[in-house]
Amino acid sequence: MADYQLPIEKFLVQKIQENYPDFDLREGSAFRDMLIKPMIVFMQPYRDQVNVLKRNMSLENFETMIDEELDALVANIYVSRRGGVKSTGTVRIYTTSAAQISFTTDVQFQTATGLIFNPTNTISFTAEQLALNVDGLYFFADVPCTAAAAGAEYNIAAHTIIYISGGQSGISKVDNLAAFASGVDTEDNATLYERAKTSISTRDLVTKRSVSAVMLENFNTLKEVSTIGYGDPEMERDILTTILDLLVTVESRSTGETSGTGTTFSDTSSIDPIDFIALGVMPGHRIVILNGDNAGNHTIKSVTNQQELELYDTLTVRTDINYGIDGLTIKDDYHIGGKMDIYVDTTGLTTDTLYLEPAAATNSLTTASLPVVGIQSLIEVTPGDYDPVLPADDHTLWAEHTAMTDDLEAGRVTGTGNTFEDSNISFYDEDIKPSYYVCIIDGTDAGSYMIKTVVNSHKLELYDTITVRNDVHYRIEASDFVLEVADPDTRMSVNEVVSLRLLTPQSVPDRCFIGSTLTCTYYTDPTILDYQNYAENDLNRVVTADILVRRCLPIFVDLDISYSGDALETDIVNVVTEFINGLKIGEPLQASDLISTLYFFNVNYVGNDFVINAYKYATDGTVTVDRSSVVVDSTRTSKFIPRLITATKIIPVVVV
Q1: 420: closest CA among 369, 480, 463?
Q2: What per-residue confidence (pLDDT) applies to 129?
Q3: In the chain, at which end, N or C, are there fewer CB atoms within 10 A of the end residue's CB?
Q4: Which of 470, 474, 495 has the alpha carbon at shortest distance from 411?
Q5: Per-residue pLDDT tens for 541-588?
Q6: Where does CATH 2.40.30 sit in the chain?
Q7: 405-478 has which fold?
Q8: By C-alpha distance, which of 175, 176, 172, 178 is closest to 101?
Q9: pLDDT at position 579, please?
Q10: Handedness of CA 550, 551, 552, 554 (dihedral sign)
């Protein structure tokens, strides 16, 4: 039988000989020249096409397929390749005169490497608008721009746009003060193959696999999905709390083994043992004694152990007491199901500006449906025009680094290790909070130290270590405002409501911003609304579940790297930024992995002062700082975001 894998000519000769053994098929024969050789010309392309079809029958051959072939194959399971996303950002143009200027979408801004960006829309600026924007000797205007093509290569660093083409005359220079972001490459074959494997399942918002498949299929702006549902420890929206009335639970006990003396009350019954701790008895509840000299209500000060309580009142020596316990307690929390949180990482993180009208009678400004990513140091608030309230030299409010407590007297301060103490001040009265700063003004410890906890009214615990030091001047730096979260269960979703509460510090009463017109610049993710609308659409929604789409809780990373090698500082910043952005949801940030990556980019040494500063944002609005030179952990609802990345090249000293 002829071998179908043979070359066409040999296959034909072998096949004819099997069926017609008397034919003359020698080289140069008429039959071979007139029949077999012409058939090769027709059959070879046919065989090639058959081989392609055979190869394309299996996803396992994705590496040898061209894009169109794999697209056609995965279309059979209703999967399509995710197209690229164009990078966006802002270009600042500078002029020497405040004259009207316009930009059409044909104008090109270029980098030194030839990457092109165009204005997102036609935009014009009046002479009056330019006159208000002054930077040194120049007037300026900011033009929102979009990359000419999709791809991550257009996520350029700050200060890389240097040319303009097609614009009107009078422009002195152009620059991008911030990096461009959100550019995503078109999905390659390997990534499409992996996604296709997980897409062969229920194609709706039910299982974790199907949620990921459906959401990634429908939104190119999505990078990753993490689903939290029933039974997951991160799920907090489906908790049903049961509250017990202890007076009903304990009822009236009389075992003959109860006693009270001094401030102690005990129940040592072995027949019907009681466990005050398991019952949820807490300080503030009351013992209700029903008989004897001590009859009445006695407030509990503390629970000593399972069978003994300490009271505020003093009891006479008494045994065989009938009593009950008055108070409500939380017995247990139950997850009842019916909820699903879809945490997403997207390309939509951006900044926006909100105008806050004067608040004359209140210091709380509430904004609904504002998916704010990050609070405190990540939000900048600046006074609006013609603001009579702010001091003339106070141009910017920050949520950190603002003098709240005046310089305090010396001679009463001690510091050792992570502890900072001042016996002559009440940190509680000053409303000092974690994440505020102790700013030491003089001595070897001069600098700012973030507060980790307020231990008591006179003692603070810091993140950093300080030397033993007496007699220093210091002040507390804190917030001009705080962002308060109304409901932690809706944080980072379109349903959240946040309040910007302006502070009036006791020590600096003139720093009052109530009544001010303010502008608030914040991080946000407008794509969250698109995902939520999709999940709530009648054709997509799960009728048995309440689905809430939430952006991953941010862990903002500040990192300063000193290194030696041939790489430029800007290149190192870009490498570190891409490394952090490439981490998956819940993946830890390993210092060793980052350093190993740097060695591939002409770095031969990384300084020993390498420390990761990670600012972790919780659903309740609190921020904790995790500093490590080894690893910073994440969660299934969190994602690292590079914030302030700097690199310093070590220049070797040459000894002559």
Answers
A1: 463
A2: 83
A3: C
A4: 470
A5: 888 889 999 999 889 899 999 999 988 998 899 899 989 999 999 999
A6: 241-334, 405-478
A7: Elongation Factor Tu (Ef-tu); domain 3 (2.40.30)
A8: 172
A9: 94
A10: negative
